[in-house]
């Protein structure tokens, strides 16, 4: 039957695409469905940073003192749209609960485990699909321009080293020798050697999609899923704007849009919210930096890409429906310029806003229940954790042991 597949993957971001390719590569026929285009959401517009060093929860107690400014400053690094406070409140309360010491440390250790496996998974995935020219494992920097910030960085680096997240504290001369375009106000930073970045996200998605199709995988874009149901534990039916399909397994990997998909198949109310992120792309700024540079003081990241320099970051809580505030993207330019010796060329810039899928405990859902497999909620770390998530889900689908203990990622934790 033309509408029958072994596996249907819903969501063509980097997580869903990596899963679809890994499963198809085992000889299992896969249909990949996306309501837009493959790799067109947060996977297109993210910072391109394979951020294995980011092992702390989104639920950081230091955020509490920032809440008043989050409501007032429309361009702040953390922003809550006051019109969205009411629908956001249940999720915020759960987030606050995860700031307590015990859950905070649990999440921290689980993220450390997951990110600890992510770099090796990316290296193997990159080699398998000939992505070495696009996926650069050359490290990244977190820099400081104030003495108290540098002091915090030193303590932060010492702690991370003690738990196996390798880094090196650079003084100003070492920092400027490595990245000579940085201004003298950058007084030091942490270098993370076991991190990386992607220099062309769109081309990476294109190559992975081509490999998937060449292996026999099928792709449906502009295809809205309107219903998912199952008549048994071994089969599910997908109703879409392009027809109905039957599969032995349906993988829900819809990123920030996964909550509504889960509601179709489960009574579990997943505490998933979107963190709206922005970027500003500077096409004339090629070669200014060699690796990603994040500012601890200014709270954003600059990533060198083949298409120019990408300035990205910030968190805005305003839901999935409100229009973007592109002034937030343009604000990256006055943040970045003081960090560099000469002003950035801002001609022909492009602006973007997208949705990060963040669960209140900062951990993804990677689980299976009957004919359904869940792989969503990776917050800021979707790119970072895509390859290891694909390994886990591929093993789940084929009845093999997973490379990590997946109990912390169970959907049942929300019961």
TrEMBL record:
Its EC number is 1.-.-.-. Keywords: Oxidoreductase. It comes from Providencia zhijiangensis. GO terms for molecular function: oxidoreductase activity. It is an enzyme of class 1 (oxidoreductase). This is FAD-dependent oxidoreductase. The keyword Lipid biosynthesis does not apply. Residues 7-393 form the FAD dependent oxidoreductase domain. InterPro entries: FAD-dep_OxRdtase, FAD/NAD-bd_sf. Gene3D superfamilies: D-Amino Acid Oxidase, subunit A, domain 2 (3.30.9.10), FAD/NAD(P)-binding domain (3.50.50.60). It comes from the Bacteria. The keyword Methyltransferase does not apply.
